[in-house]
Amino acid sequence: MGNSYAGQLKTTRFEEVLHNSIEASLRSNSLVPRPVFSQLYLEAEQQLSALEGGSRADNEDEEEEGEGALEPTCPPNPYQMHPPPEGCCTTDGFCQAGKDLRLVSISSEPIDVPAGFLLVGAKSPSLPDHLLVCAVDRRFLPDDNGHNALLGFSGNCVGCGKKGFCYFTEFSNHINLKLTTQPKKQKHLKYYLVRNAQGALTKGPLICWKGSEFRSRQTAASTGSSSVFPPAESSGPLATFSGEPIPGTTPSIPMGAQQAGAASEHPSLTAAVGPAVLNGKDSPKHQQLVKNDPSAMPRPSALGILSNSGPPKKRHKGWSPESPSTTDGGYSQGGGNRAKHESAGMSCMPQVGLVGPAPVTFPVVASGEPVSVPDNLLKICKAKPVIFKGHGNFPYLCGNLNDVVVSPLLYTCYQNSQSISRAYEQYGASTIQPISEEMQLLLTVYYLVQLAADQVPLMEDLEQIFLRSWRESHLTEIRQYQQPQPCPPAPSAVAPVTSAQLPWLAGLAASSCNDSVHIIECTYSLAEGLSEMFRLLVEGKLAKTNYVVIVRACRSPAIDSCVAVTGKYQARILSESLLTPAEYQKEVNYELVTGKVDSLGAFFSTLCPEGDIDILLDKFHQENQGHIPSSITASSVTKSASLDVGGAPACTSYNLEPHHIRPFQLAVAQKLLSHVCSIADSSTQNLDLGSFEKVDFLICIPPSEVTYQQTLFHVWHSGVLLELGLEKEHMTKQRVEQYVLKLDAEAQTKFKSFLQNSFQNPHTLFVLIHDHAHWDLVSSAVHNLYSQSDPAVGLVDRLLNCREVKEAPNIVTLHVTSFPYALQTQHTLISPYNEIHWPASYSHGVDLYPENKKYFGLSEFIESTLSGHSLPLLRYDSSFEAMVTALGKRFPRLHSAVIRTFVLVQHYAAAMMAVSGLSQMKDYTSVETLEITQNLINSPKQCPCGHGLMVLLRVPCSPLAAVAYERLAHVRARLALEEHFEIILGNPSSGITIGKHFVKQLKTWQKIEDAEWRPQTYLELEGLPCILIFSGMDPHGESLPRSLRYCDLRLINSSCLVRTALEQELGLAAYFVSNEVPLEKGARNEPLESDAEKLSSTDNEDEELVTEGSISEKRSPVKRERSRSHDSASSSLSSKASSSAPCGESSAQPVAPSQGERARSPQSCGPSEETRAPGDRQRPHASRGPPPVISRRSPGPTPQPDSGLRTGQRSVQASVTVSSSQLSSSGSSSSSMTPAAGTLVLQASQCSMSKACRQPPIVFLPKLVYDMVTATDSSGLPKAASLLPSHSVMWASSFRPLLSKTMTSTEQSLYYRQWTVPRPSHMDYGNRAEGRVDSFHPRRLLLSGPPQIGKTGAYLQFLSILSRMLIRLTEVDVYDEEEININLREESDWHYLQLSDPWPDLELFKKLPFDYIIHDPKYEDASLICSHLQSIKSEDRGMSRKPEELYVRRQTARMRLSKYAAYNTYHHCEQCHQYMGFHPRYQLYESTLHAFAFSYSMLGEEIQLHFIIPKSKEHHFVFSQPGGQLESMRLPLVTDKSHEYIKSPTFTPTTGRHEHGLFNLYHAMDGASHLHVLVVKEYEMAIYKKYWPNHIMLVLPSIFNSAGVGAAHFLIKELSYHNLELERNRQEELGIKPQDIWPFIVISDDSCVMWNVVDVDCGGERSRELSWSERNVSLKYIMQHIEASPNITHYALIGMRKWSSKTGSSEVREPFSRCHVHDFLILNVDLTQNVQYNQNRFMCDDVDFNLRVHSAGLLLCRFNRFSVMKKQIAVGGHRSFHITSKVSDNAAAVVPAQYICAPDSKHTFLAAPAQLLLEKFFQHHSHRFFPLSLKNHSHPVLSVDCYLNLGSQISVCYVSSRPHSLNISCSDFMFSGLLLYLCDSFVGASFLKKFHFLKGATLCVICQDRNSLRQTVVRLELEDEWQFRLRDEFQTANAKEDRPLFFLTGRHI
């Protein structure tokens, strides 16, 4: 019913029996009905093409071949014998091939009887004494009781051996029975034949036919178990798909969503969709199979499961008993093979008899006689009735089968509604019954009764009604199942409808509908009802009836029913909807080619007062030849070009916008990029972005020349090719064409070179963009079947889904489409996480991406139709629809597309004539068309340059488009309008051709110099007045210019109701509207000009009803309520068509609803509005000269609301005619215009272009589509959105929830992914069959967004930012800061002067003094360390920064990564896979945990460390035995000279940087063997192990989880010394001296990324000139150089410079310095045995350690010619410490001043280590404790044994209390403060007495607790010189359990 598959029920006797048993089980409360029965017998309906001739006898040779033969004939009419084919034998007793069949002649001959066949004797009336021998399939013969014979026939001729007769009629012809009555097997097959003892055939027992005429349907239910799988014809193309039954049928396909059966397209398909009949010899084993294995019936979806499917009316000739493959579910569902639709060129067989859909017959169990279809049914009815099979048995039809259409859609719908939702089965819902057949039928009647006269029934609606009804009736039960229930609930108490009540209730329901639904009740079978219906139709008694419901419900519990659609309008639409698009085109072609349309053309040519339009046109042409027609001032057109030059005002509205990226496009591009990054970031290794250096791309588009040129244009102008570095500055068009691929026959070679290119360039990332991706989804399997007919079939699948694309690691596929639904099925290849949807512009009322343009798409168009808005932009044309309907009745055999096209072309032609001055033609067009034409012709005159508007006329069928083009061009030529507007035929396969005159105009407007230039895209037609006839079954993404004012979609295939198709057509009008116009209610879509502006306009605007409508709407005191139907009969039509004055372009103003419409609106407008408007208009006119015009809005006769055809229409047209005649008389030549009016023209005329940017086009739709689009469901979702999403998919179940308006795009995607499945012809169909659960392709993305919104720009922008990111991935931000405090360097005699030394000379170096000053720029905010009395001006030190600026403001430089860089986890390349542990040889994470303990006196306890050692790294360690206790880490010897490895183990302490830390040193070490240990905190162990499975981890004890970097350094150093001792002991036993064990380790930061060396040319020792260059080297080079230094073991700490681009020659002049080293240290653990890192420190611990090492008398050496680059890493490290309040939940940052407090106070405690609070406090607020020291650099603070950063404003002087330590001379200093931090026993009172302090200097003592604070004061005798007060005691703001630090401050006396 409005949907289209040609699936059809083939019920058989056998199935009937089964059906009863199922129904019994469904109705009973005890059995749980099995879902397998839900769709038992749907099989594909056969569409038998009415091919006359070609009878089977001609094909004998083929038929012998069995499999290959095809049979194109139709069964002969049973009542009238066809004359036998010429030349065949007609002798009685012989077959047509001339072979003898008489029993007496052949009784002793051997006869080949196939398995399952029996020989029987037939009686011929002309040979009463003879029996003719026949072989008949035993299943079609009765058993001994006369029962169980399958209906139909299957037999072979034993004479000539011809096999496979499917009809007894046909067989009786072949054996020359020469019957006068209808041939019946019951009458003529009389005896079984048996062989006697001698082997001769003799007459056997009678065949017992009793009881077969009327069969009841009760038979033992046990028959069900013996059902068998039907074998399919493997010869048909369906064998390809027969792998899997389709999940679920698609009952809900809207009209036209599928084809009506395959027969007309491809004969072998016909065969394959036919039901297969089992052979006797196969059946036992099949039966056994089903009996023993219940799982053999997999799901309700396996459609053809119950086989014995009855005698096929037309079966594949070559069907053989030996082909037991399963019937393919896909095709058996009603022509599921979209294969043919997807490409028109697939059929191999010409379709003859192409009138309407090919006739269909039902080989179903008949009860009684077949029903004969009357001969001239179509002639009488004016439409082919569409009969929907419902419940039960359907009789044979015979006779004039061409004039009816039979469809199983309703049957399928019933079946699906019977299947109980699986959702409830899991609750064991045995008592929830499906909706009963009686109820289904009753609901169907209710539904039909409430349909309006112009509505067409939709299967989906009916399905929803059934679903709702079922839910309501079982609501309580469903709820009970949803809560756990101990006992089953009682069955519903509502009394069910019985079959006896059914006819009465149906009649009652239909009684209210004025006979639009007629109920026929039958007694015995539907055959009576159908005969009755045909009789009533022929007698004309059903003229008012749209639906006839035939029901047989009296004889048995089960009912038979069918519904016939007899309404002319409905029947036509439904029968046409059963055609696939391909069939539709064929049908139209056929009608055009055979000249069937001539009668229509002839009819139209008479539609004019003169009786012949062409005569009228010729007359007009002759009259006006030689001079321009007065009605049109062509001068304005010709003048336009010269205006610019001549200085006359030029048009300012015409500006082609520059290409720039809009915020939305940028946002989408960034979303795409982040999806690509997330694919790369996932652990699946599917995309290794780090390995790509550049981006390349290929854009695949449908084969449309205009789209191709448009895409080239976008690519060219976006600059993406330059940005990606693919092309140089001056690229040619040919070069750009390399990147865009048109998917046509030539595509394959270009695509191959793309693949080859991707293969050859593994380091280029190729992005394959599939634009308009919903276009060709045909599976390549279908192409394999049809390759000879159309090479383009399945091209997308063959190219984009080929193995090379799927497997290439460097190809990412991006599907881009506005209609992604067909790519969102259960089998899709695209992960839901890889979908990117265009973002909504508003979220919670906030404009997310402010733009100066507003997108106007489908939802906005629909919104404009709602009342309360300004005039609707979606309209329909009721007079056009009325004419189409009338002509549909007059020409019932023509397809409505043909009629609609002819009517519309006629309307345009008449309108052109009317505007040109033939005003008598006004009555022969519709108001809408007249408005369009007027504005088209007049708009150029409103603009000084002649800019006009575009009218898009959509004619999907190309042949019809050509007809329309020729006709309109002819009329235009006769009216001499060729210069005024262009008519363009837009065909996907060809480019645009337009006349020279118009090309010249466009070049002038667009300022194009190129003489060869021609427009190649529709966008380049900006401003050209033209009608664009846009053909092609689907638009292919062509964009239209802003000058598009009317989008005329009245000819779109309205029966093709599929969401994609509908939205695709409406997407043509999508538009960007300038946002400057305030979008209030009135002005939302159209700007309303101010009244003042209106007053100044010319007098001709009085016909522009538009303006009146809008003004009166503004002024009217009565609020106008608009009715829902906007047929715009009221559109603005300039009545003064013949006048020469330029007519205001009416589409600029909204179109007013016509009077008729207003009258129909529920609340009709009061007279106030009606009478005021004309008055308002007339006042201004009176003052201006030309006479006022009778307004078209004078009140006309008011028709009744909702009268079917609007009578208001005529009155409108009448008043138009009046006014126009008045106007014509007022003067027709331009000279009659008064000068005053003439001057006004220029002021008032407004170029159509200026309005174009402010308002979207007006769209005209067919009424059916209009209703579908504007109707909404309860949630406000347009009905169109809930249609089947695409032709190539089907619903998975009818028990699906409805879509809802509130769903986002993502939720819609998930909905379709759950509820739709692809058809077998869809390229994703086989995806799940691969058996992988993860059936998504990892490198596939889907971008969807509304049509024309800018997706191309977005993905081109994405390519740019992707390329930038890849370049960015090969670059790194490194700190680039000058060294600080250079000007404080010591005198020159302290320099190392041997500039060319590669290594430091130990003796020379010892003489160098130590430079205490910190030069590392990261310590810019640290306290200066004084080494002698310096005169530092306070301004030399910068103001201290805010803490948060410290990171932000550090300077960085972007560097290209060299081949020696260190990497983080995002780098994966072939070489370091093994190093990273992702190598197949290593099991991932195969590593062992080893404890390693050593005691350390300072901590007073044993330290337990854990090593995680991967198997691959165990050789670096010594174990007690393999897999035993870890003993030590192997160390090399000092004497080793090997260059194969790095001697020093590297330790990298890290926190919070498992992904971003640079731990991959493979390339940095240039592949050399090295030992690298990551030092991690216990709580981070697992995550580091996951990211770095092949790295050795040293796990710190849990007490250090909150410690700083000092703790890590401390433990690394202690562990290394302990290990050194172990190794010395171990190797001493091997005879190696302890001092020969290598004592160095490297402590490296986790952000060291690259290393450099400076090559210096000293140019002579003493020369001041120094030339040097810096280059990147490997860490291996640097380490081996340093490790090779002579006397290296004498140095305690070696480091290098930090890199800076600002490094001057002074810094690299001397190769070595004795100063602080940071970041990358080479530490001698032997020499520094007694110097410890402070394990409590968080910051500056390296400076503190450097000072300790120096004061211990050890050497620190910095290699100035080596430098390390440090990467800026925004996460982890010291920034991972956040200081927050311990109590409150608010995350407000705590300021450093709050880090300390008075002891015992109520201060809020902080959750942070005490040491961190101390250091942070001193960094920012130390001036509170040392006020005298602030900016007082000559009086520093004395800091004993430690360096604490007191902030950049305070200087410190470091002294060590250890005996024999090196300290600076302090005798000259007067200190401004003293800092004693956790001082030990080395600090004594005598030690402190050596130092001198200023009066008022301050002291700060810091201890672990208050007790030790007091003891320290006493021990150091501090009270002698320092004064303390009670209130000077402080503590860090920690709770007691966090062990705060305590301070005591005092003043020097």
UniProtKB/TrEMBL annotation:
Domain called GREB1-like circularly permuted SF2 helicase: residue spans: 659-1377
GO cellular component, one term: membrane
Family named by the database record: Belongs to the GREB1 family.
Membrane topology listed for this record: Single-pass membrane protein
Coiled coil regions in record: none
Keyword Transmembrane helix: yes
Pfam families: cpSF2-GREB1, GREB1_2nd, GREB1_C, GREB1_N, TAGT
GREB1-like C-terminal domain boundaries: 1787-1949
Record carries keyword Nucleus: no
Chief location category: membrane
Keywords: Membrane, Transmembrane, Transmembrane helix
TET-Associated Glycosyltransferase domain boundaries: 1545-1773
Protein name: Growth regulating estrogen receptor binding 1
Source species: Canis lupus familiaris
Residue stretches of biased makeup (Acidic residues): 59-68
Bias kind Low complexity: ranges: 1128-1148, 1209-1232
Chain intervals with Basic and acidic residues compositional bias: 1083-1096, 1111-1127, 1169-1179
Compartments, record wording: Membrane
